[in-house]
Amino acid sequence: xxxxxxxQLRSPRHLWRDRLLTTVAAVIFGLTLSNxxxxxxxxxxxxxxxxxxxxxxxxxxEANYKAARxxxxxxxxxxxxxxxxxxxxxxxxAKAEAKAMKKSTKAHAEAGxxxxxxxxxxxxxxxxxxxxxxxxxxxxxxxxxxxx
Length: 148
Known about the structure:
Strand content: under 5%
Number of helices: 4
Distance between the termini: 51 Å
Helix content: over 70%
Radius of gyration: 30 Å
């Protein structure tokens, strides 16, 4: 007696349907994964830009301070003291603004991550109304689309 595999016991119509569903699920999963990278890249890119802008602002503040100190050296007495204090205050102000801008950019990136997490939970909850393979595919799509 010869044993048949599962494909030989099914009708050709069911085989075709199962293969089609598997292919469609794989295509959807692949397309969903291709949408995840831009969100991660955007977050990384915004952090990279924020760090570069911060460094540039700090470097500019340092250069401006050095130039102001050079100007202050030509003064004498209390005028020189006031000039030095003003230069130092301007340097600190510029650095503080740069730091605030960097933190703001980081906060925006974190907010984006929190939004994706919330969207993931909603998408996963929608999958609960499904069952079987459809539910599994739905959950995989939600994870691929909204998780890192």
